[in-house]
């Protein structure tokens, strides 16, 4: 644009000089045109730039993985961007990894509300923040222009497919679930009423392992509860940060898909489930409970919003076992990938 301006002023100076030495109406008309045309172009540019405002709209805030997210950029005023050339830069970021992508959308000229339409492919599971990063415009002659930054994003959840499996092995993403893989969550009414010696027929889940550790090898102490305890399946989700951009997004997409699968199996069995995820920002575990299909989808969205980190699955398991509020009698389900 700078070179074009310099060239324009050089030409204008030459025509102006010729007009001084040669009083010819043709040259004068040329001088007038060289001033008037850029002036008209600037006026049209100024009209297009007055109170410039844009908003981004998506057709759906929840889409299935593999589909496309349709994006429409809407102008604040119909005259905005009506008489200019340029492009709009859209940035979208996966919340759990922080990986960013950019696309450029050509500006639609004319007096209309729509400034541009595009779509992006929802190739990976996760929550995506989509927004207008910037807009670059110039007049028709390329003499005037600007680049303007924008703020504000729209969040879109790319959900895994709803498939249920007891055992699933796909692309090295492994997890196992069965009816025996349960943990117990104590509530106010689930107090231990007494401790006694182990008797034949007692469930191994009720053994008090800490008390039993000081006894002889084959002696055990058993806990008796005043009421029936609530069964909850703990599902630890590995959100470890590793690999380059496309590989880690693909890895986390497979983990989220298996997380959804195990959650559906849990809900269909009539059990309460709880996702356990290590939150790097809080330096603690996040526990998200679900009990049916609707609460499961909400729980998956919460998990996909948590930022990935290093060594998260080990930290989550350690914090889980150190939680005094829980009575863990069997190993939790761990969703991970090598």
Tally of distinct domains: 2
Helix fraction?
Answer: 25-40%
CATH class of the largest domain reads: Mainly Beta
Coarse shape: rod-shaped
Biggest pleated-sheet summary: 8 strands, mixed
Rg (C-alpha, Å): 32 Å
Q: Please name the fourth-level CATH homologous superfamily of the largest domain.
A: Macroglobulin (MG2) domain
- Along the chain, the helix and strand elements come as HHEEEEEEEEEEEEEHEEHEEHHEE
| Coarse structural class | alpha+beta
| CATH hierarchy: architecture of the largest domain | Sandwich
Count of extended strands: 19
Protein name: DUF58 domain-containing protein
Transmembrane segments: 6-23, 28-47
Keywords: Membrane, Transmembrane, Transmembrane helix
Quick overview of this protein structure:
Keywords: Membrane, Transmembrane, Transmembrane helix. By secondary structure, the protein is α+β, with helices and mostly antiparallel strands.
Question: What this model shows, in words?
Answer:
It contains six helices and 19 strands. By secondary structure, it is of the alpha+beta class. The protein has two domains: 159 residues, Immunoglobulin-like, CATH 2.60.40; 137 residues, no CATH class. About 7% of the residues have low confidence.
